From TrEMBL:
Pfam family, one: DNA_pol3_delta2
Protein name, as recorded: DNA polymerase III subunit delta
């Protein structure tokens, strides 16, 4: 999703206010550090800043989003806006040196240049030291934006050369409302907004048929817990395992199952607002009536333990899910 200043002001009001103020007064820093969790809009904000700096037809600080420069920034083809990303596991010294060589040349189309370093915490020590020299002696008209999810891993000397902006996570309720505005059904929007903080990831997930079917399979699994063990195990192998065949899919499926138990607990506490399976309220109320609270709490703990084993052992996926299903049944 292309970000606009109104959206940034809603999601990150402090960041938007300070950047807009700097643009209006012509006091843009030579280096910024945008830090925050994945999906909080750091890269989108950096590209928005680039458009405000390079737009050919701005309205004050607001870019037009239609001119050649705005479109090329979106497509990553503007010659004076460079984005550096990790090469494999790290950002290497050679990448920073290439950037320095590029930026010693005269700007191609204006007197400004901008570079964005994604996952800046993944710079090698030599790369970070090379960048430090660049930050200490910035070229006129050059703006640097470093993006990081792990602020503490950056060199203090790098941090001290930057103006730091912290990006807060978007509350799931706001992200769900945003997804509904994109045409996503509320039940899927609520779950997707709790599974990821990224609006792009949440939108892609909620529009995926696989995700809608995953929700159905999770509800069916809970229903099967009241059936004989053989029927339950047959369901696990016939429906659950084929649907959640990839590692990330199984992790997501277990999280969806955890949210179902969470909803049951909330219903027993008389809290029906904020249910993630809100369209299944009648079924959930029936299940909550027949399930002791201790069993719900034990079930939540069993799901979390299964997730932990899944990530820390080489246990067979089939065996792990079968054991969990039998544990939840008992």
């Amino acid at each position: 999703m292309t970000m606009r200043w109104e959206q940034l002001a809603k999601r990150q009001p402090v960041v938007a206010k300070m950047l807009q103020s700097g643009l209006e007064k012509g006091r843009i820093s030579h280096a910024y550090l945008f830090e925050g969790r994945r999906g909080t809009g750091k890269k989108a904000a950096s590209l928005l800043l680039a458009k405000s700096l390079f737009c050919l037809s701005p309205s004050g600080v607001f870019p037009c989003f239609q001119c050649r420069n705005c479109r090329r920034i979106d497509s990553g083809n503007h010659p004076d806006v460079r984005v550096i990303s990790p090469d494999g596991e790290t950002i290497k010294k050679e990448q920073i040196e290439w950037l320095q060589r590029e930026f010693t040349k005269t700007a191609v189309e204006s007197d400004k240049k901008m570079y964005i370093v994604e996952h800046a915490e993944q710079m090698t020590t030599s790369a970070a030291n090379s960048l430090l020299k660049f930050l200490e002696e910035p070229h006129p008209g050059t703006v640097a934006v470093l993006l990081t999810e792990q602020y503490h891993r950056l060199l203090e000397t790098v941090i001290s050369r930057c103006q730091v902006f912290s990006f807060r996570p978007l509350p799931p309720s706001e992200l769900a409302d945003q997804l509904v505005g994109e045409g996503v059904p509320l039940p899927l929007a609520l779950l997707a907004a709790h599974l990821t903080n990224s609006d792009d990831e949440a939108l892609a997930l909620s529009q995926d048929r696989w995700f809608a079917e995953a929700r159905t399979v999770v509800l069916q699994l809970y229903e099967m817990l009241s059936k004989p063990e053989l029927q339950l195990l047959f369901f696990v192998n016939d429906r659950w395992i084929p649907h959640f065949s990839e590692k990330h899919q199984l992790d997501l499926g277990l999280q969806l199952l955890f949210y179902l138990y969470r909803d049951l607990l909330h219903i027993q506490a008389g809290q029906t607002d904020g249910l993630l399976y809100s369209d299944q309220l009648e079924r959930l109320q029936q299940w909550a009536l027949t399930c002791p609270q201790r069993r719900i709490l034990d079930g939540m703990e069993a799901i979390l333990q299964a997730k932990a084993r899944f990530h820390t052992t080489n246990m067979s996926t089939v065996l792990l899910v079968e054991q969990l299903a039998l544990q939840l049944k008992r």
